[in-house]
Specification:
There is one protein chain. It contains four helices and four strands, in the order ααβαββαβ. By secondary structure, the chain is an alpha+beta fold.
């Protein structure tokens, strides 16, 4: 009988150790903090002529580590890029646009338009 108690006690202690060390909330907290540290830029791009070009830009840029989202527009000739400045800089984003076969003409901070 005492052997069973020792085994059960050991199992409970190991389980408590695993649960306390793996908490789960620590990883989520880090993700939230990283998500709060984002920036947005507007990249003027020449050479886009269709929605296929938009898709190429969006696909290429979202593969860059640190780029969170991309919205390209061939009619406006630009892409709005949300990124984490701690992981990627604007020069790498510009190089990625150029690597897709287009020309990143100008990079500037993105000004969101708000309606009153």
């Amino acid at each position: 009988m005492s052997k069973t108690r020792v085994t059960s006690f050991s199992f409970v202690m190991v389980l408590l150790f695993i649960l306390s060390s793996c908490g789960g909330s620590g990883g989520k907290k880090e993700v939230k903090e990283a998500a709060n540290e984002t920036a947005m830029i507007e990249v003027s791009i020449s050479g886009m002529t269709c929605t296929g070009c938009e898709n190429t830009i969006q696909s290429g840029l979202t593969k860059v580590p640190g780029v969170i989202s991309v919205k390209a527009s061939h009619t406006l000739g630009n892409a709005i890029v949300e990124y984490n400045p701690e992981q990627v800089d604007t020069l790498k984003i510009k190089d990625a646009v150029n690597g897709c076969g287009y020309t990143a003409v100008k990079v500037m901070p993105h000004q969101e338009i708000t309606e009153n």
